[in-house]
Design brief:
The complex is a heterodimer of chains A (470) and B (363). Chain A has 470 residues and is mainly alpha-helical. Helix content of chain A is 70%, strand content 4%. Classes of the chains: A mainly alpha (470), B mainly alpha (363). The structure holds CIS-heme D hydroxychlorin gamma-spirolactone (HDD) and protoporphyrin IX containing FE (2 copies).
Chain lengths: 470, 363
């Protein structure tokens, strides 16, 4: 690509609303994604426990989670459809030039979702009349298929970070595409496993958190214990792994995209012995205001030695690097993600120690308070991670191949702002619908449980419903 | 057949699948909207509620698949269509999202005023979405989408006689499909009055579909001559005739109460309509100048796209077959609805006082 096609933002006021709209819709969609990837697995584990011990409580939980799975899937499809349309509405330049290069990943994703839709329908509607064993077996492929769908999307995103597998002809258009190299580009592996781990953490902490709230409110029956134990244990096991994966991902960024590493670590001048800033704001002149400075740590993290040379932002011409403001945003997002990861690691260690020492859940109310918010914290970490990845890529949409300014639509700014405003309202409606449905489910489940308790058990503690859903 | 032709054919089949799958969902919204006042319309609406569940948003996956195929197979077509006809696409997308939200919100709501509001949103959105998606295709068919990033007119590219015909056809076809499907649903849930109700509407919608098609053909003659010519010769004509025969056949089979047959015939009618358009417009993806060959993306990508599609068909086919088999042998039960709705939706017969008997209080 020649740099001449690049126009500065002032010439293209539509870039700002296009970015904001894309960011908003992606960030909404990605709240659902961890549930889509990991909830089927968690549900099947519960289903398995139910089968093996012929445990009614476990069956009940699995069945209820599968309902949540279906609602979440439906909203995922709708918000995902909007994203696909936005690719053309907001970024026609990107798709016109590169659509055939990185489209295969999306093709895999689309088919994987279709398969998943069919399997989820069978699983959801099969509870009553299929034999429990066959029903469980038919559910087994769902987690694998959702891994496949995530692979497609992550491959496309990783390709935008490390575009491989094509050559440019004389006119600057991509030819001689090698699909294998496109799909399995260098950033795919690190990004994919980090993402999958994030999904399992988030879904595990979110679901566990719901039952932690019930626990805090005094519902300490088997239903709540099991509902907490299975997802939370899974998340607590994944968390330490995730720290290692995240560390590896950061080092991949360092080797594959040194300019991006400089952006998210706000490194200005190339050199060894780079300090690490916790937060802090990069100024246009290259100095850092605020934040906590830890000498030499950045170099050490990147190459295990204080002498590791880290490339600085100033290495690239001003129109080919992120602005100081973008770097600051990416850096804060990065630090937020790592900070939350660290806190969640401590929570997992607490849980693990309690289990090792007493073979039981921790007793402290503070543990359950932390567990209750751990899911939300994970969602924040996921969002922060994506902001790191996407803002850190600026000003490129395809790394060192195409600038955002070349990708953007020629629709003018006004209509995009307008459509963005409408989307905000509509998404608020959907969020309302989703929460409303979940609350309704909760009430209904509680009532069912209360009836069940009345039928089967003598009322032990009149003050507390014997077995109430969260 | 080159791999570009093959991808174009798969793309066309994807559009047909969305017209059928998505169409049946949209059409249900159409009948919901036109079911009349709160009391007279309550039973048909209850049937719509019963027949549809959130998972069927999955039909939108066909749309995603169509979009992916377009940007991978014909990147510049994707760029040109969405940037030029953006207004129509935004309206269609809004329809799509609001339809889902309106339906999901209404289903568990029992309060009258709110229910009415959600009913309106659900119904109107169900008409808006297919209309504007198809209107965009009408812009393509009548040669109004030039190559490039917003190179064409942002209004006339989708607001023109051909687009209006396409849009109206899409709404009529959706209503037709949905009515036919709802006949089967009504029978399954044991509501004979609703069987008759939707049988009448199937015939009505089928007639409307044929009428709009006939008027449309005349409109194409003046507004999109190449399309008109393509529809009156070779494959275009053959498929057009199949569409007509299948539509009439649906009505006849309905009379004989052949439920599987009617559904298949209705699907055949809509599918062959879409195919007729595609084959009439051959060899162009973007008439009047961009051919399938010229618009196609990289050859290696196209081949892999076909491989992915083939593998997927091998995987999805059996799963889908299993779903239908389990469904037809009544081994699937939509019991999760009990979790979402406070009352069973369809009482088998109206109450003595004539009210439809949605019984929140009975539980
Ligand atoms: C539960 C969520 C979660 C947690 C605890 C972490 N991450 Fe993360 N991170 C994500 C969730 C996430 C993510 C949302 O999944 C991202 C966004 C893009 C991606 O592929 O994964 C991501 C991206 C992301 C990136 C940017 C990749 C790119 O630019 O393409 C880096 C460098 C890290 N992570 C590093 C870390 C480190 C060093 C962590 C802790 C020690 C860490 N992450 C914890
Ligand atoms: C799900 C997690 C994701 C989130 C939350 C996210 C977030 C964002 C954000 C915040 C921006 C705006 C950047 C800016 O304002 O400077 C953006 C831009 C963009 N993202 Fe992502 N992104 C995600 C994943 C993806 C994936 C998987 C793809 C494609 C495969 C993608 C494609 C794009 C494109 C095309 C743009 C617009 C160009 C740009 O501004 O760089 N994103 N995204
Ligand atoms: C950019 C265009 C995108 C499109 C067209 C798209 C489309 C979809 C669709 C249709 C679904 C199915 C609903 C569901 O499963 O919940 C979905 C879910 C999902 N999306 Fe997106 N999405 C996009 C962006 C993203 C981004 C940015 C990510 C983040 C990495 C992502 C990863 C996933 C994953 C992993 C799921 C859940 C998979 C599952 O449920 O099996 N997608 N997406």
């Amino acid at each position: 690509m020649t740099g001449t096609a690049y126009q500065i933002l002032a010439d293209q006021p539509q870039i700002l609303p296009a970015r904001e709209q894309m960011a908003f819709t992606l960030m909404v969609h990605v709240i659902l994604v961890p549930l889509g990837v990991a909830l089927p697995f968690i549900t099947l584990v519960m289903n398995y426990l139910g089968l093996r011990r012929n445990d009614r409580v476990a069956f009940q939980l699995a069945r209820r989670w599968s309902t949540v799975m279906a609602i979440q899937f439906a909203i995922g499809v709708v918000t995902g459809t909007v994203l696909s349309l936005e690719f053309g509405l907001l970024w026609p330049g990107l798709m016109g030039r590169w659509g055939d290069v990185f489209g295969t990943g999306f093709g895999i994703e689309a088919w994987a979702f279709f398969l998943e839709a069919v399997l989820i329908s069978i699983y959801l509607y099969g509870w009553k009349r299929l034999s429990p064993r066959i029903h469980f077996l038919l559910g087994l492929p769902i987690p694998l298929v959702s891994l496949l769908g995530a692979f497609g999307i992550l491959s496309a995103n990783a390709w935008m970070n490390t575009p491989h597998g094509f050559t440019l002809d004389a006119a600057g258009n991509p030819t001689a595409i090698s699909v294998g190299k496109v799909l399995f580009n260098p950033m795919l592996g690190p990004q994919y496993w980090h993402f999958i781990a994030a999904a399992y953490m988030t879904a595990g902490f979110l679901v566990g958190g719901v039952y932690a709230v019930g626990w805090l409110r005094g519902r300490r029956d088997r239903y709540h214990r099991l509902g907490f134990l299975v997802p939370f244990t899974l998340a607590a096991i994944v968390t330490p792994v995730q720290m290692v994966l995240g560390d590896g991902l950061a080092r991949s960024v360092f080797t594959e995209q040194p300019q991006k590493f400089a952006t998210i670590e706000i490194v200005w001048q190339t050199g060894g012995n780079q300090p690490e800033y916790l937060f802090g704001r990069l100024q246009p002149d290259g100095t850092v205001a605020g934040g906590i400075k830890i000498p030499g740590l950045d170099s050490f993290l990147a190459g295990f030695s204080r002498d590791t040379v880290v490339q600085g932002l100033s290495e690239a011409p001003a129109d080919q690097r992120a602005t100081a403001r973008e770097a600051t945003i990416a850096h804060w997002a990065f630090d937020t993600m790592v900070g939350i990861g660290t806190v969640l690691l401590l929570l997992s260690v607490w849980y693990g120690l309690a289990w090792l020492r007493r073979r039981d859940l921790p007793r402290s109310r503070w543990f359950y308070r932390c567990a209750a918010v751990s899911g939300i914290a994970s969602v924040v970490a996921v969002e922060a991670g994506w902001i790191t990845a996407e803002v850190g890529r600026q000003p490129w949409v395809v790394w060192e191949q195409m600038k955002v300014a070349e990708a953007v639509t020629n629709i003018s700014a006004g209509p995009i702002w307008a459509s963005f405003a409408v989307l905000l309202v509509v998404y608020a409606l959907i969020a309302w619908a989703f929460l409303g449905l979940l609350l309704r489910l909760r009430l209904r489940w509680r009532r069912q449980d209360a009836e069940l308790a009345r039928e089967t058990e003598p009322p032990a503690q009149p003050a507390v419903p014997a077995a109430a859903a969260p | 057949m080159t791999s570009a032709d093959a991808v174009a054919l798969v793309l066309l089949l994807g559009i047909a699948a969305y017209a059928c799958g998505g169409g049946a969902d949209y059409g249900a919204g159409f009948w919901d909207l036109t079911a009349g006042g709160e009391d007279t319309g309550a039973r048909p609406r209850a049937l719509v509620d019963y027949a549809m569940a959130p998972v069927w948003e999955a039909n939108n996956v066909w749309l995603i698949f169509v979009l992916v195929l377009t940007w991978t197979g014909f990147p510049q077509v994707f760029e040109s269509v969405l940037s030029t006809a953006w207004l129509a696409v935004v309206l269609a997308a809004l329809g799509l999202v609001l339809r889902g939200a309106g339906f999901a919100l209404r289903k568990p709501t029992r309060q009258r005023v709110r229910r009415r509001r959600y009913t309106a949103v659900f119904g109107v959105a169900s008409i808006v979405a297919p209309f504007f998606f198809a209107a965009t295709l009408g812009g393509v068919a009548s040669g109004r989408i030039p190559l490039g990033n917003r190179a064409g007119d942002r209004v006339t590219s989708w607001l023109n006689p051909t687009s209006v015909v396409f849009g109206t056809l899409a709404v009529a076809a959706s209503a037709f499909l949905a009515a036919v499907f709802l006949v089967s649903d009504a029978r399954r849930y044991g509501a004979p009055d609703l069987v008759a109700y939707f049988r009448r509407r199937s015939v009505l919608a089928g007639g409307a579909l044929l009428a709009v098609g006939a008027v449309g053909l005349v409109a194409f003659r003046f507004d999109a001559r190449p399309l008109y010519d393509g529809l009156l010769r070779g494959w275009g004509l053959a498929l057009l005739l199949v569409a007509v025969v299948a539509t009439v056949g649906t009505a006849l089979l309905l009379r004989r109460g052949n439920h599987l047959g009617t559904r298949l015939a209705a699907l055949a009618a809509v599918t062959s309509m879409v195919l007729a358009w595609g084959l009439a417009q051959r060899p162009y993806v973007l008439p009047p100048t961009l051919t399938i060959q010229a618009g196609a993306g990289d050859a290696d990508s196209l081949r892999w796209l076909l491989v992915v599609t083939a593998v997927a068909v091998v995987l999805v086919g059996p799963a889908l077959a299993l779903l239908y088999r389990l469904d037809l042998t009544d081994r699937l039960a939509a019991d999760h609805d009990d979790d979402l709705v406070e009352a069973p939706s369809i009482p088998s017969r109206p109450r003595p006082d004539g009210s439809p008997g949605l019984r929140p209080a009975d539980r």
